[in-house]
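Justification of resources, computational component.

The compute hours requested in this renewal are based largely on the per-chain cost of generating structure records like the one below. Each record pairs the submitted sequence with a full structure-token output. That output is archived, and it is also reused by downstream analysis tasks.
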Amino acid sequence: MLWSRSFIPTLKESPQEAETISHRLMLRAGLVRLLMAGVYSYLPLGLKVLTNIERIIREELDKRGANEVLLPALQPQELWIKTGRDKEIGEVMIRFVDRRGRRLCLGPTHEEVITDLVKNYLNSYKQLPIILYQIQTKFRDEIRPRFGLVRACEFIMKDAYSFDQDEEGLEKSYQLMHQAYVSIFRRCGLDFLTVEADPGVMGGKVSHEFMVPAKDGEDVILVCPRCKLSRGYQEDKPQQSCPKCGINLEKNNAIEIGHIFKLGTKYSQALEVSFIDPQGRQRPVIMGCYGIGVSRLIPAIIEQHHDSEGIIWPKEISPYKVIILALDVMDKKIMELSFRLHKELEDTSIETLFDDRNESAGVKFKDADLLGIMLQIVVGKEYLKNGNIELRIRETKEKILEKKENVIARIKKILYG
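The structure output for this chain reads:
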């Protein structure tokens, strides 16, 4: 992709509304733009990052036998009334009446809808277990949207739901999804902790949160500095010591990126979802639910992967793998080689951004560092003088000189080993 044909509106200064480092960098790097409080537009680079995260999620869930669906954002309030959650969620739910007089809401989550869907399919234990998931926009009327995508009114979530015939089956599904989450977050380059949590309005008796330690995180957790045992923090309780190490747990700010729940029969009983077991008895299906804040992963990744110059994307998340910096667009030799490298990289399926703008070298280097693309290819005076191409690794700032005939092979080795 040529920068001159792209929509990458970078900013030199941080906008006043930016509250955290991830929020500032997302705005400065042209990933998102604010439409109104808690609502953001994703620009091309932000959408590419989001797509990469969604691809990782789909790959990890699909190989564990989960099936993707897409459920309606418009939901009848009557389903929520049946489970009692219309009152529990309260004013956070965006509700309205359509021209037919139907009482509707914009889905803040989809437990009721997925349960109602499976109700019309499920008859026998032979159809179990089932795991369904979706990646979809959710809506919540947050009283105080903040931290950019961390606490938004419109956000993207991956929500999955398991249906089993007994507690043993639920435990297997729960552990399967736990393993999937570990793989997803590791592939996203995140250092994360798993914390036992309160199920809250979701219901059930067991739940775990996946938390990313971050300086500007909105949540607080207690962590053992030695063994990393983690638990939620409650202000009304004194700081506790680690049951394994005997030393005091430390308070850490964190961003919640995922939450998994053993729901049991809360929704299946309320919505009358049952199956016939091997003995011919009718029993309520046992459920679990599993959420990932897909859009929230972007700021979480940036919080852990940045420096004073900008973002440093992990390899699988980076919107492009390579950026070519042509330092003098008026020089024919520089531009000819830059275009050739761009074509060769694209032909080998290495996504490449070619900065072909008529800007100074300083501007190009600053923007390249801000965007955080993992590998920079510099075509400038060194090439004209000695025939060498300079490769810069964004994370380590390592500089490598390579002859032009060997540069593609060297790039592949850096990217893929």
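The mean pLDDT is 94. The longest helix spans residues 167-187.
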